[in-house]
Backbone:
């Protein structure tokens, strides 16, 4: 079950996210009801953060193309050899056929899809440096076509 939630990008409170993460940094900005009639606690702070641009700290999906690699969580995440974060949770993704997980990534210019797509990311594992692909949408069914399909 853990691997399925990681492939889909579902966050586990206390593992992937905690009370130090904002909804924007946790990758959960889509869940915010910005126009809620009576507002909500923290709305102004989140609006101010949103106006500053993409979060500098963000939880993102990761996948390793080599199915032989074992990930356990807490592996350092490097971008062109420089530390930019760490793996929060990982497992073998049986649907995708390789290691998957969620990582905390940091970038002063904001963690954006373009920055992630640029590549150059590796994980420092006991077996050495391993290339990794990162993205903001979930790895499995990112457009939610399967989950919304009628039976």
Residues:
């Amino acid at each position: 079950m853990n691997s399925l939630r990681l492939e889909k990008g579902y966050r586990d409170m206390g593992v992937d996210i905690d009370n130090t993460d904002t909804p924007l940094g946790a990758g959960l900005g889509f869940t915010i009801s910005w126009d809620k009639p009576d507002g909500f606690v923290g709305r102004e702070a989140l609006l101010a953060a949103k106006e500053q641009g993409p979060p500098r700290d963000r939880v993102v999906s990761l996948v390793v193309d080599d199915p032989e690699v074992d990930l356990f969580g807490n592996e350092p995440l490097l971008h062109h050899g420089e530390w930019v974060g760490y793996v929060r949770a990982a497992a073998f993704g049986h649907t995708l056929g390789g290691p998957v997980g969620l990582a905390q990534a940091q970038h002063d210019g904001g963690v954006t899809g373009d920055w992630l797509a640029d590549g150059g990311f590796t994980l420092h594992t006991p077996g050495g440096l391993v290339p990794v692909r990162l993205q903001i949408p979930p790895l499995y069914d990112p457009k939610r076509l399967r989950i919304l399909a009628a039976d």
